[in-house]
Amino acid sequence: MNLQLVRIELREIKLPLKWPFETSFGRTTRRRILIVRAFDKDGASGYGECVAAENPFYNHETIDTAWLITAKYVAPLLAAARVESASQVSQALSPIRENRMAKAGVEAAIWDLEAKISKVPLWQHIKGTRCEITCGVSIGLQNSTEELLDKVSRELESGYQRIKIKIKPGKDVQLVEAVRARFPAVTLSVDANSAYRIETDTPLLKRLDDYNLLMIEQPLAPGDLVDHGKLQRELQTPICLDESIVSLTNARHAHELGACRIINIKLGRVGGYSEAQSIQAFGLAHGLPVWCGGMLEAGIGRAHNIALSTLPGFTLPGDVSASERYWEEDIVEPPVTVSREGTIRAPTGHGIGYEVNEARIEALTVRREIIHLTS
Question: Which residues form the catalytic set?
Answer without folding.
Answer: 166, 266
